Amino acid sequence: MKYKAVIFDLDGVICFTDEYHYLAWKELADELNIPFDRTINERLRGVSRMDSLEIILEKYTGPALSDEEKERLATKKNDIYRKSLEKMSPADLSDEVKETLNALRNKGLKLAIGSSSKNTKFILQRIGLEGFFDAISDGTNITRSKPDPEVFLKAAEFVLEEPKDCLVIEDAEAGIDAAVAGGFDGAGIGSAAKYSKATYHLSSFKDILKYV
Ligand code: BG6
Ligand code: MG
Q1: Has domain 5-15+89-210 been given CATH number 3.40.50.1000?
Q2: For residues 205 and 189, is the Cβ–Cβ distance under 8 A?
Q3: Chain centre distance of CA 176
Q4: To which CATH superfamily is domain 18-85 assigned?
Q5: Strand order across the 5-8 sheet
Q6: How high is the pLDDT of residue 179?
Q7: Which is the catalytic residue, given 11, 18, 148, 185?
Q8: Which residues form ligand 1's pocket by a CB distance below 6 Å?
């Protein structure tokens, strides 16, 4: 086997919470009369909640916002987002993802999550994957957001493997950049499927099985 572990991003890789992130930011941006569309949204992939807010505020023209007001806006977005998450169930985990994860596990690979999200554990619980992964590195154990490699380096550390022995799966260009910066091979899927810095370009989740 080429790798000893696979580290998965969560939003947009394991499940389609990326759409819920977009809809929640869109609601907030509309309220503040800030232009926000799917093109700008692409820049938020893999980026922490507060860094995402700063990107959205680049087009804000209202009165200056204090740090407390920014915190309040980020919390408001998260409250909208959590309402969508609460509606999720194991039916939101596709058969393809479920079967591929099981096949990787059966090959003896360690499986970990490497996500910027502070909602990671809640999402995994909603979709029926609580306790499935060997390790979870997420927004609660990092200080620097992707493209910094911290979240993946921590995931590798948690599964006791070297970055060169781990394959990272990402839908964000910032996530592939983070993988490269940390010395990992990165497989791009979805929005990052055609990204030149990715080691592999996946057209479907099950393609991971071809490269491990
Ligand atoms: C990443 C998403 O997984 O998590 C980003 O791609 C998001 O869009 C980030 O901003 C932080 O998520 P949360 O759930 O902590 O607000
Ligand atoms: Mg993602």
Answers
A1: yes
A2: yes
A3: 11
A4: Putative phosphatase; domain 2 (1.10.150.240)
A5: 135-137, 110-114, 5-8, 166-170, 185-188, 200-201
A6: 98
A7: 11
A8: 10-11, 21, 44-49, 52, 78, 115-119, 139, 172
Query: Which-ligand-closest: CA of 9?
Result: 2
Per-domain residue ranges of the chain: 5-15+89-210, 18-85
The runs of H, that is alpha helices, within the chain are: 17-31, 38-42, 49-57, 67-86, 95-106, 120-126, 150-158, 173-182, 208-211
pTM score of the predicted model? 0.97
Mean pLDDT of the chain: 97
> Closest ligand to 171 CA?
2
Across 171-194, average pLDDT: 98
Kindly indicate the confidence band of residue 140, based on its pLDDT and cuts at 50, 70 and 90. Answer: very high
Choose which residue among 117, 120, 138 to substitute to test ligand 1 binding: the one with the highest number of ligand atoms within 8 A of its C-beta.
Answer: 117
The secondary structure of 90-117 as a DSSP string is: GGGS-HHHHHHHHHHHHTT-EEEEE-S-
